[in-house]
Amino acid sequence: MNLILLGAPGAGKGTQAERLQTERGLVQLSTGDMLRAAVAAGTETGRKAKEIMDRGDLVSDAIVVGIISDRIDQPDCGKGFILDGFPRNEAQARALDEMLVEKGKELDLVIEVQVDEKILFDRIRNRAAESAAATGSVRADDNEETLRNRLEIYRAQTAPLLPYYKAQGKLHSINGMQPVDSVAKQIGALLDEVK
Ligand code: AMP
Fold first, then answer.
1. In the chain, what are the domain boundaries?
2. What pLDDT does 120 receive?
3. pLDDT number for residue 140
4. Which CATH number fits domain 3-26+79-194: 3.40.50.300, 3.90.550.10, 3.40.630.10, 3.40.50.2300?
5. Which pLDDT value is given to residue 149?
6. What is the pLDDT of residue 65?
7. CA 75, CA 141: separation in Å to the nearest integer?
8. How many angstroms is it from 77 CA to the middle of ligand 1?
């Protein structure tokens, strides 16, 4: 089972992907997490990505497509994977379609996690406060100004993927404004339906 979680920043994709990883043995592939790891490790990719990420802009398609393609080739992804934060524009979606054909894999479904924008601002504020309390540091892009830019990019570049996947008959939308457990239940039901 290979799926995409699609949704604006703060919609809860990461939380739900982690649950699916624990509960169903699917592998979470978060380009944001991978890029943050590259920044922390000081690799060349990380150095190139850092400023772009701090502004909330998109890192180049070539970088993220390469990262995902390499990661999907790892044996643990054979059981299935959850793409979280990728693809984020049509060029990435097309590159994904092509690479899956080349690798002999298929995308089973795309789940849109819908959350109103006002709630996204509240969530990002909370995420920053919780992270500061727990670790003493906050993601550089978890602030209102950057979130505004990230949302604009979501609307302009990522939301057009909804009709793209609808046309492929793969799109399902769920209400992401319910408690984490209810959202997880809705996602679980969709996965069981498709299985
Ligand atoms: P996320 O953790 O998914 O919110 O991603 C954090 C940041 O990493 C984004 O704001 C982008 O700068 C970068 N990023 C993550 N995934 C992608 C992607 N698929 N394409 C381009 N940039 C990305």
1. 3-26+79-194
2. 92
3. 85
4. 3.40.50.300
5. 95
6. 98
7. 32
8. 21
* Close Cβ partners of 105 (under 8 Å, ≥ 6 residues apart): 2, 72
Return the residue whose CA atom lies nearest to atom 19 of ligand 1. 86
What are the average pLDDT values for consecutive 10-residue runs of the chain, which has 195 residues?
Answer: 97 97 97 97 96 96 98 96 98 98 97 95 89 89 90 97 98 97 98 91
- Residues marked active site are found at 13, 88, 127, 139, 150
Centre of ligand 1 from the C-alpha of residue 70, in Å: 17
**Helix (H) / strand (E) containing 111:** strand 109-114
In ligand 1, which atom is closest to the CA atom of 150?
10
- What is the crossing angle of helices 180-194 and 13-24, to 10°? 60
- 192: CB partners within 8 A, 6+ apart: none
Q: Say yes or no: CB of residue 88 within 6 Å of ligand 1.
A: yes
Predicted pLDDT at 138: 87
Segments in 30-157 forming alpha helices (H) = 31-41, 44-55, 61-72, 90-103, 117-135, 144-153
The 8-class DSSP code of residue 79 comes to G
35 lines ligand 1 (CB under 6 A): yes
Binding site membership of 9 for ligand 1 (Cβ less than 6 Å):
yes
